[in-house]
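Why this split exists: single-chain examples teach little about how molecules sit against one another. For that reason, every record in the complexes split bundles all components of an assembly together and asks for one structure covering all of them. Below is a record exactly as it appears in the raw files.
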Amino acid sequence: MRDGKHPDPTFDAQRWDDGRNVSPGLGALSGEGALQRVRDRGPLADRGRAPPERVPREEAPEGKSYYGLPVLKEPVWKWFIPAYFFTGGLAGACAVLGAAAQAAGGRGTGDLVRRCRLAATAGIGASAALLIADLGRPARFLYMLRVFRPTSPMNMGTWIVGGFGGLSAVAAAPAVLPRSRALARAADVAGYGAGLLGLPLVGYTGVLIANTAVPVWQGTRNTLPILFAFSGAVSAGALLQLWPPRDRAGARGHAAGEMVLRFGRVAKAAELAVSFALDQEAARRAPRIARPLHRGLSGAMLQAARALVGVSLVLDLWPRRGRRTLLGTLSGACAMAGTVLLRFGVMQAGRTSARDPHATFELQRRGRGGAEEAARGEGGMPTLPGVEPTGQESFHAGPGA
Amino acid sequence: MDQNVPSDHAMSSAGAQALERTGPDTAARRMGFFTDTTLCIGCKACEVACKQWNQLPDDGFALTGMSYDNTGHLGASTWRHVAFVEREAPLPGQGSPRDGAAAATWPFAELFPLGQPGPTSLLRDISPSHIETPAPLGPTERALGKFSWLMMSDVCKHCERAGCLEACPTGAIIRTEFGSVYVQPDVCNGCGYCISACPFGVVDRRADDGRAWKCTLCYDRQKGGMVPACAKACPTASIQFGELSELRERAEQRVEQLRSRGVGEAYLYGADAASQPGTEGLHAFFLLCDEPEAYNLPPDPVVPTAKIVRSWWAMAAGVLSLAALAVGSAFSVRRA
């Protein structure tokens, strides 16, 4: 059958055997001899990935590079991953707030706790779906549970996501299943558990992207996790402003709404402060790596994110009355948009940074590469438990290896 | 010794069988590459041999305009990549007799008087009259004195501390009994984390296949007692394969030799942990004659995990503040 999708029926049978056959997507041949036509996919382009950009001459500093070509590979993640950063952060922060509200107790917090738990479960469900969809071989997603290795934040995250998913599902169960005292008690315990696991859940994604060779991410490794944590908190607060908990207005007023508002205000202020600290950390390590934070598409996204959260904070400081107000909705919408833009902006900044060879070179020439760790004088590079540094545990090394 | 070269499926089960010793002569020897770029002639036999042995798909057919380098960079389907740099700086020992460098040692030196244009064809121009009536140098011949090639066959460095190995969440990337870093294709689920973690930009994900691929240091050939395909094909022994300790000795001797011949720029890149602490040494190290950036190599690469300990503490501080904020918001309202 010679249509565009299956150029050669005999070839097609072996196509997925080991993935190493000549792929028709890359080099489809048609015709014979001198009439052979090759599918030209453009210069050095890979499907769905931008070809490596050359640094424009006027931007190239005095340093050498190899035709301006990138030295690193860009992250291969699609939009699913920054979307997951958002949903995971929101889920974790909701669980944390829900557990805190549960611990404080009091009149009017019941609905807040219920909504937090539901949001956490929905968020982690969406997160798992996004993560699995982004894999190159989604059917093999369970392979992430083959090992437990603290050196890999992605592996740690898999365990955290799995544990959190189970706990938050149990915690949210009373909202959907018939009432039962045993279930309610189990849900309460699970609610605290999810609240505890929600803490690493909101923060580990910052460590995940910092644990790469991408200059802007590696160069902001100490502020990124904190920024992501508070960004998650902002999105949780924003969700509860757009979906405010029902609160039987008692003598004390809207307790749940007030909790959410206080949480949100401080979280927004903290996020703004940490975002400035992020710029400072990058510039301190090497000015070149901070470029994507201010320039281009990533710079625009990050500045817009900051502006939106700032507007949301100002709206929050305005006095308001009642449970559902226009100010509350506006503030929630701005904060939501701001946190989404932040995740996508950070991802875009990483892509731009990986594409710029001079970011890597300058960072390392300023002594921020291996020399920085060697200078700490610990004898060898720092290691984490979980993997013997060279990976030698993969096989029986034998004596004297 | 087993001379059968295993297929890809057998190789992945061989990865699982890496736990078993295959014999006393393969007991955990650290094997690797020493690539002497001063010997590279840019023939790309290594690229071809690697593609052919591993049956790698093509990467698209395009001309880049970057000298003779139409491959561009290492990738999921290119595990050997020859870099070409034409630079306006002389390199002692690399030049034509017109440069006057060591003219006396060139064959037919008497036909190439110092500073004179050479004959375009030995057959046509071998005549005393050419030498007796020398012609002035043209612009090309004048420029040739300030010119040299840098040619390097780039490959996965098989770092002693490998960023890809430490980042892999599925445990697909392992250290083999030969000391090389190997991605098990039957385990890899294509998460793409190794790609961002490699400080050299080596490993990549194949778009249609979904998994990450990189140089295997011809694990299947090594298991069969053979030399990797690229080293086997290299006509000038620019790519040398062997035990790392032996290669390092040889490399140091070569650097001494080059320096004594006037190539002061020669040095080893990634030969040991002292010179490259970030990766604790490479199992595929190089002899270079210019800054690493000229060859598209990072000057001071570091495995990302070595920098991340403080980041985890920062995360802990951040999330604990978040917990305090949540508890504080909840309890302060309740008290009010």
